[in-house]
Design brief:
Layout lengths: L7 E4 L7 E6 L6 H12 L8 E6 L3 E4 L5 E4 L15 H20 L7 E6 L1 H13 L5 E5 L8 H6 L10 E5 L8 H13 L4 E5 L9 H14 L5
Parallel strand pairs: 2-3, 2-6, 6-7, 7-8, 8-9
Antiparallel strand pairs: 1-3, 4-5
Length: 231
């Protein structure tokens, strides 16, 4: 199925636009739902002085874990398990589509090193493929309650390279997560770190498969460091 990104919500910065954050929702969601969730947790609309926030919506496509039913998912997978093989063709297709959006930002004057990708659950998995395979000069990658498969092509592509200049990683996970096991997220971060990716893993005590206020506050602090306002 051809990948189409027809729906997108954009939140303009409160000041001069000098950087962009692409934020990807979890499986079965939408950009609108994800924005609403983050705004609710933030207690007001999530905006930044210089950063534009873009919330795309995944295309509706057959999703194997739902027995082939149509769902808004970024890519297909055989099952939700760290040990499942990736469906690389499906992942690559959406990464190429999102790369076009990133390139449009660059054509409009925002350099690749002033762009961050991030997301929740499946959306964060997409962000990791983008940051560590397709757009390695990005300013950073934000991962909320997510993981990479143990045999991920991300790891294959990082092996044997100097990855100190790879996008820095900010990763969150709660130990009680009953959808994406905490151990999967922890193992993902450990493997990326072993391969040279710089970043931090933030444990969220008592947090299940959800987004919480402390997480958003930490995200906002981190963004001011990786996407500072021009002097």
């Amino acid at each position: 199925m051809a990948t189409r990104l027809s729906k997108m919500i954009t939140v303009a910065p409160t000041g001069k636009h000098s950087a962009t954050l692409f934020f990807f929702h979890g499986s079965g969601g939408s950009g609108a739902d994800f924005k609403e969730w983050l705004d609710m947790v933030n207690r007001k609309e999530l905006t930044f002085p210089n950063v534009k926030v873009v919330y795309p919506t995944a295309p509706a496509q057959p999703y194997t874990p739902l027995e082939g039913m149509l769902s808004n998912v970024w890519f297909d997978r055989k099952r939700i398990s760290m040990r499942a093989p990736e469906i690389r063709e499906s992942i690559d297709e959406i990464c190429k589509e999102i790369s076009k959006l990133i390139e449009e930002e660059m054509e409009n004057g925002i350099p690749e090193n002033r762009i961050v990708v991030g997301g929740f659950s499946m959306g964060a998995g997409l962000a990791m493929h983008l940051a560590y395979r397709f757009k390695r000069s990005l300013a950073g990658c934000v991962v909320m309650s997510s993981f990479l498969n143990s045999n991920s092509v991300v790891y294959e592509e990082l092996k044997g390279k100097d990855n100190k200049g790879a996008p820095p990683l900010l990763q969150f996970h709660g130990p009680p997560d009953d959808v994406v096991a905490y151990q999967w997220g922890e193992a993902t971060h450990r493997t990326l770190k072993e391969l040279g990716v710089q970043g931090e893993f933030v444990q969220l005590p008592g947090v299940k498969h959800e987004i919480v206020e402390t997480e958003v506050l930490r995200l906002k602090e981190w963004l001011t460091k990786v996407l500072p306002q021009p002097s």
